[in-house]
Amino acid sequence: MDLLAGMDDSTTDDDNASQTTEDDPQVPAPAPAPAQPPPVQPPPAPSASQPQPSTSHQSTPRERPNYRLRHTLRGHTQSVSAVKFSPDGSLLASCGKCTKTLNAHLDYVTAVHFNRDSSLIVSCSLDGLIRIWNVTTGQCLKTLAEGHDAICQHVQFSPNSKYILSTAHDSAIRLWDYHTSRCLKTYVGHRNEKFCIAACFSVTGGKWIVSGSEDNKVYIWDLQSREVVQTLEGHGGVVVAVATHPHQNMIASGSIEPDLAIRVWADRGQST
What we know:
By secondary structure, the chain is an all-beta fold. Helices cover 0% and strands 37% of the residues.
């Protein structure tokens, strides 16, 4: 039985740049314009002594994240390659250089990730392919391919397991509908040309995409608009690992030599 059958089709990033994902609010269609009322005389201009009504609500800026460094953890003697919060958010795990590979691709496997119910695994490799696997049978259900200049480095399922996020050496992060093999959105602005750099979702506050970068920064994008909404500076090396807390507005990031540090960032509320 095909586990991927019966899914709706979606538009590509090029077809519709405003493609939305599950649980995003939909903007209702505007109501028909009412008939024009008869002209009326404008009211007299208020005197200088009269207070003016506030119009601040008409120019309220769009909410942005406001992360600040909260902790720096040291102890690694080799490059930090991955960080991950525990499901309850009480622990943070990290690991160093990879010493083993999985024989599932034609080249080194650089990332694997379970979906929400652990029924599927997504993997990517230096062979340029992203593969979806059935955990029980080991069968490859779907294969996605980046462009010939975009070797995939990292993949993970979205929190609802309907999408896949991938990073590649063309300095682009892609959001895939793996059921239709279509790329829905592309996020750019960071630098990723050499290292295996991770990206992840943040859904505890706003809906963001978070990634490391080879310019020693952490980048945060608005998931829908693809706008870079914040960059986090503090690492002294390439940031290759990022993770988001499951319940709090918190990000963990890890970097390689010479920094060898994990930094934890907490959102302090709407930036001004």
